[in-house]
Structures are given as structure tokens and as C-alpha cells.
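quick one, 545 residues, struct below
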Amino acid sequence: MRLTYSTGRQEHAFLEPEAGIAYRDDRQRIAIICGGQNPFADQKQIAAILGVPVEQIYVSHPPMGGAFGGKEDLNVQAHLALAVQATGRPARYVYEREESIGYSVKRHRFEVDVEVGCDATGKLTGFRASLLADTGAYMTLGPAVLVLAAEHASGPYRFQASRIQGQVVHTNTGNASAFRGFGNPQVILGIEQAMDALAGKCGLDPVDFRVQNLLRGGDRAAAGHIVRNDVTLPRLIEAARKGPLLSALSDERPQPDPDGKLRATGFAFVWQGFGLGAGAEPGSSVTLRRDKNGHFWLDCSSADLGEGNLSAFQQIAASGLGCNPHDIRLDIGTTDNTNSWSTNASRSVVVTGSAVAQAAKQLAARIEAGESGALEEKAHFAPLFPEKLTLGAPHVGYSYGIQAVRIALDTATANVTVEEVETWLDAGTVINPDGVTGQIEGGLAQGLGFALSEDLVQREGCVLNNRFSSYILPTIRDVPTDVRVHLINHPDASNPLGARGIAEVGLTPAAAAIANALARCLGHRFEQFPIKPEAILPVMEKALS
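---
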């Protein structure tokens, strides 16, 4: 089964646009207060641009309204610092929405050619993928995105032979860089559509076909690395089969309902590595202290992007110290804090949270020993990669999920409505269930846009749809009211909390599930994403004629 397709250039569309202020502080440092995801990385880059030692730059990332990877790259920081250096006066810079959409980095546009084969029994034999990623005018994180895409392109499945090739290319367009999912949403479209189509060709149930070919702990994945920990999808499948969507799955071509809509179900499996990949995970350091008044303070540089990490850190610290989470005060997000590295890659609770747990354990031991007064404990945690030489351990662990959707295709307008979504997720040890559910629901909304509407249009270097009136985002009316999230908790062995990263697995499979549902409706695989009504209409008219 061979599929070729291309994906769109998606805008992060965070609520809070890029903004910041800068000034000389009382230590004569240039202080930059702005949205970002790693104050120490920003500090290093700004110092290099200005030609000054890093000690002369202070960066603070206060709580902000979203990032999704789009604030890993510098935006207003260097401009603000240069203005203060040149004028000696404070500076302020706030992007208008048109500037934010026009200037900011985007999700990489991919062109994908994927081929999957199996034998007569349904056992997968070969996998081939060719990936072309458009990173725009500058490289930024293009190579890293491509590496993760290649790692995940074969899905969580066993193959006897594989060949994965990829290229990052420059084009005369705006930059692409980090975006939630980091290349995986673009490639899961290929493997999950191919698995559905190949199962149909063989006359096999698409769920059973996947189960038969799942990776297991100790297997070698198609990209060459050993999957060290358990692949927990079988546990999810047991629960998912009992749900109304997968239990009613049918390959029968639907007929229009009385309201003139075609309805069908689609699903996709997902795996997503967490932590910085390719052995680049530096770990996180935190400081936990008790002041002379008996108040507990958590000191770390993690930025609060709105995803709830800091609430989880408070819960973890409180659990170790035997106090209420509200008793943990926060001193966070600056280069004066302990370096806990970046807020990205679904790593914060897994890596920084583990450092918090370790610091809490150390501090609790001193308190139990009767030490009084001000106390301080610093801890560092970094997940361990294999000690002996292997063919690669690109991530220390993976999160696994299954997402099923029911769509309604309007035969009059060719509009697709997602009416119902059910997600089963192995989130490891869950620190904050409401926070996990919120992450999955939010990721789903971005996945709907990636699948059905969001695509930045550029012509001769200019963005044509740089407003929310022309760049079509899913709204509250487009996200289904019936969204069910089921957490199947199997602790991961890569960290003492047993946690898994969950920020991306709600988004990543959505487009593939929708594409599979559309294929059940129309018997057709689309080659351009997002799939818009103008592309659906001629296919639908032919299918219904």
C-alpha cells in the first residue's frame, strides 16, 4: 500500500501574542520580561547578539497565554535588548495579531511518500518512507523535527525491513520550527492511513491487524532503535474495544442519514517520544527551600505556558513534604532561578517533576531529622540512556494512545463536523487528572484545525491570511461537546514518578483518525491536508452518483 500526501503550514495561534518589555535593572543588567520557553537559552542568544557576557543579561518568562513550541525561538527579545543597549531607555514591543501570524514560526509543511507491505497472514514485512520538510528561509529546528518525524514514521509497529529517508529544504517563505507534536502529526497520517487501507485489502479487521503487528518491549523499531520499555497499547485496546466508537466500527460504506449527512468512524494509534530526543536531554535542576518563617519555596526556571506544569510541581513537592500544595510558593521562570532547562517536548512533569520529587525527599529527611530554621536542597534529574553502545535510544520513553472520532459529512456543503471523540491514553502515573484531560481536549482542537482548515497562504514572501478572519481556526462550535478521555495508568520506568509526557498525544492522531473516517465515507484517500470542502465536494459527488 503506497500513499503520497502533503500537509499544510499551521499557525500556533496562541492567545497571547509575542510581547515584552526591557530595561536596565538595579544591577545594570539588561532585563527582558517576555513570553518564552527557556530563559537560559534566550539569555545566551541575546548575549551573543549584543556581544556582552551572559551575566549582563537577565531574562524572565512570566506566566503567559500559550506557546505550543512557537516561543522556543527568539521573537521580540533581541529587538528589545538592542533598543535598551542603544538608547539607555526602557523599551516595549507588542506584536499585533497580523504581525504575530506574519512573523512567527510555523509547523513544517511536509511532503510524504510512504509504502507499507504485509504477507498473506497480515504480518507486516516492509516499510519505506520518504520525508521532505520545508523549514523556510532559515534552518532553526528543522533537522530536529525531521529526526523525530523519521523516528515515528513507522508507528508503533514491527517490520522485517525498513528504509526511511528525509530531507529538510529551504524555501523562500517564512520560518518553520517547533510545534506541538514536532513532526509526528505529519507522518502519523501516512502509517495510520496505510494500516487501515492495507487491512481492508487483506480483508482483516483494522484493529486486529494493528494488534497483530505491535512492537513489544525489546523489539527493534523501523528506525533502528530498541524499544526499551513496555508498549502499553494492548492495555488500551482492551478498554477501547468496549467503547461505543470502536465497537461499532464498520467498513460498510454509509448511506446518508435523514438529515442529509454521511456518518462514519475512524481511529488511529499513536506513540510519542517524550523528553528531548537523540540523546540531547540535559535533565533539570530545581531548588526547594524552607525560609526562616517556615514557608516552602520551589525555585526553578520552568516557564508557565498555561498547561498546568506548575500546579503539578506543587502537588509533587507537597506530596514529598506532607503539606498542602497551596503551601508551596513559586519562584520561577527567570535566569536568577535554578536552571531546569526548557518547557517543551512533553518533558516538564517527567524530568523537572522528578527533580522536584527528589528535592522534596531530601528536604523532608532533614526536617524529620529535627533540623530547624532555613533549609535548602538542590536536586538534578536526567533520565538515563543505555550505558552500553546500542543502535540508538532517541527517547527515554514513549506515551501511547488510541483516538477514535465520529464524523458527519454534509452532502449539501461538503463540510465535515467531528461529532464525537474518544481517547484512550497511557499517561503513566497521573499527577493531575483534570490537567491531563484538559491537555488532551486542547490538543484535539489543534488537531482538528490541522486536519480540516488551518493552512497559511504565502505568496511572494507575504502572508495573505494573517488575521483570524481569514486564517480559519476551529472555534468552540467546531469542537465536539462529546469528548471522552480515558486514562489507563501504567507507570513508566524512565523516571521515579512513573510519569509519561502527555502534552502532544491528544493532537498527534486526530488528523489520521479523521482521514480514516472520511475514507470510510467516500472510499477515497486525500493527498492534501488540510482536507477542505472544495476538495471533498467532487469526490463526494462521484461517490454518491
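The chain has three domains: 2-10+106-212+232-276+392-544, 19-94, 284-381.
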